[in-house]
């Protein structure tokens, strides 16, 4: 049975965790296919909040097998702490499978991330300083340590010694930092991490294909979002992996023909964290309202997100990049505070009008948004469960989105709770 991909269509924080959790009730396996513990997914169930970092959102259902795929970079101490926290709240963590081919985030990755970001000064990228970029860089350079290396102490130590000689030289000679001790790292990872993580390590590719062959529903969950994609995002202000739907194949080991549904997630407005272009960014009172009403602070970092009006130019481009079959609009309730809501339908650069995303980054940095004003609805949406519960203006807002991006809006989020959504007819 074909798989479903859940992908963010903006700069992250769109509510992928909630939608994945919602849809997971009907699937057997949920696979996280890229990213690391730099991405937080928040789920609210019966008033109880679960903030996930590495573990797939489907973990809250007893029937779901949560899988961390080969495309993820894993900081094992963070993963084990997350497992322990969930287990303490009654969640069965024995179902979790971690791909042996996933790469490890090591202490030198975190240290290099921190000092490099400081060294860049005003040109910083706005990373979470958690070692994700350096871990993916080592993966591409073919010097990374993988999760499966924890099961072979000799191989682990050989690889560690080779790579640490290079990393310590960089830390000492370029950044004037003290070298890291190979013996201490090996002892921690082999004596503490390996025994705890070992029972979770498995062949995720075989597991997923056996589930597909058995006719079971599979969901592939991305972290970050389309415009943080290494190839298609607002480079260099991007993540170090491919959150787009194409990355789901690479990050799980299945082919495109195994996927028949690509569900995009977008907020009813936009936010981003860190540096980079954002044509519809809103400052002042309206921006503050979006941040406060939407609780726009990072799940992991606590950083304030940059708010803006919904950018339909970007969203239509995300439809193309991901081959979206449908889209879910989250946080529609946040816009209830506004008399007028805006959507961006074009960019103006000097005398040139763009109705598509300009390929050159210098143009995207300087464009001015062309807005279409729509009437607000000034109504509490938190109790809406059917389309008829939505005010006419709110339904019209969703219709404008669907017409512009040319795919149906199938879900509308009206609050943080698992049950706070409206299912729209296709």
Topology of helices and strands:
Blueprint: E1 3-8, H1 16-24, E2 29-32, E3 41-45, E4 48-52, E5 65-68, E6 73-74, H2 76-88, E7 97-99, E8 103-104, H3 107-120, H4 132-141, H5 153-173, H6 182-197, E9 201-202, H7 204-213, E10 218-221, H8 245-252, E11 259-267, E12 270-272, H9 284-293, E13 306-308, E14 310-311, H10 312-322, E15 326-330, E16 340-349, E17 352-354, H11 361-366, E18 368-375, H12 392-405, E19 409-413, E20 421-423
Parallel strand pairs: 1-10, 1-11, 2-5, 2-10, 5-7, 6-8, 7-9, 11-15, 14-16, 15-19
Antiparallel strand pairs: 3-4, 12-13, 16-17, 16-18, 19-20
Briefly, what is this?
The chain is α/β, with parallel strands linked by helices and 426 residues long.
